[in-house]
Amino acid sequence: MDTNSLKAAVLGAGIIGLDLVEKIQASPHLDCRLVAGRDPRTLGLRRAADLGCATSAGGVTALVGAGPFDVVFDASSAAAHTAHWAALSNAAPLLIDLTPSSVGIPVVPAVNGAEAVGHGHLNLISCGGQASIPLLHAITRGVTATYIEVVTTVASPTVGRSTRLNLDEYIATTQNAIRTFTGAEHAKVLVNISPAIPRPPFRVAMTVQAPGLEPARVHAALRDAEQQAQAWCTPGYKITSCHVDGEQATVAAEVTATGGRLPGHAGNLHIINAAAILLAEQRATGKAR
Q1: What superfamily does domain 6-124+269-285 belong to in CATH?
Q2: Residues 268 and 280: beta-carbon distance below 8 Å
Q3: Residue of 32, 53, 127, 242 with catalytic role
Q4: Contact residues for 50 (Cβ-Cβ < 8 A; gap 6+)
Q5: What is the 3-state secondary structure (H, E, C) of 203-228?
Q6: In what order do the strands lie in the sheet with 248-255?
């Protein structure tokens, strides 16, 4: 491990938090010093301890008491994050919010990571935002979108309790971020939590309505965006279909989780956690891709 690695803490011991721990441990630039939850019976805390991490069921209070840290990853809930932000203001110079709270600066690494990495409070929007916005941003460069619709499909076992409780915030935050990054007049986000077996892959289906869409330009821009996403996130990120007809483009993409213990269909967890780790590593190394 790099002797200048960042001291990291994870707040939240659910599905996202535990995968974050594994990704932190795999990074040469990050050192997981604490995983904090609120229930000592949480399976995630036990598994984090099995991985060799210090753990606490004292929540944000315990994390503040154990600090300071260089970076804190908040993988709790949107409702809790506002209070966490206030409590952690002096506990770490970098707070990466993986909840759809809309409190920090919205960041999609492939789009605005270089500009955002110097800020102290970053919001990763949602898994659907991380998967769709790089492509939507590419499509809408040079045109004004009148309407964008994103339909996200996720496998039911990959959606934890906090995420289910945050669905309203998920939708609102993702819609706002789409408008921010594309300039679209209207944006609509729908979420499909699928119980199907075999488990469906994490998928985003996008519709963009905009005058002036040129098929050759759209296809070229999407190829570039796909390659950039694969470079920073996962080789499992791929565009599965693209069609431009007049003033409407329809695009679908899938994300497959690669490496670690996540099943392939958990691309929603992988993409947002990969974004969080990338931003922390960029802070550690002092550069952005």
Answers
A1: NAD(P)-binding Rossmann-like Domain (3.40.50.720)
A2: no
A3: 127
A4: none
A5: EEEEEEECCCCCHHHHHHHHHHHHHH
A6: 187-194, 147-155, 202-209, 248-255, 237-245
Q: What are phi and psi of 74, to 5 degrees?
A: -95, 105
- Measured between alpha carbons, how far is 163 from 16 in angstroms, rounded to an integer? 10
- Could you read off the pLDDT of 75-94 as tens digits, one per residue? 999 989 988 988 888 888 99
Q: 54 near 34, Cβ under 8 Å? A: yes
Q: Mean pLDDT throughout 32-60?
A: 92
Q: Is the pLDDT of residue 40 over 90?
A: no
Query: Catalytic annotation on 53?
Result: no
Residue 1 has pLDDT above 60, yes or no: no
* Residue type at 273 in one-letter notation: N
Q: Nearest 5 degrees, angle CA 272-CA 261-CA 202?
A: 45
- Of 135, 137, 287, 148, nearest to 223 by C-alpha is 135
Can you tell me the distance from the alpha carbon of 153 to that of 266, in angstroms, rounded to the nearest whole number? Answer: 11
| Token pair in block for residue 157 | 């076992």
Amino acid at 129: G
CATH of 127-265, one of 3.40.1050.10, 3.30.565.10, 3.30.360.10, 3.10.580.10: 3.30.360.10
Residue 144, φ and ψ in degrees, nearest 5: -110, 110
Residues 52, 125: Cα–Cα separation, whole Å:
30
94-97: strand order across its sheet = 55-56, 30-36, 6-11, 71-74, 94-97, 121-123, 105-106
Report the DSSP beta bridge partners of residue 205: 151, 252
How big, in percent rounded to 5, are the helix, strand and coil portions of the chain?
40, 25, 35
Compute the mean pLDDT over every residue in the chain, rounded to the nearest whole number. 93
pLDDT at 56 over 70: yes
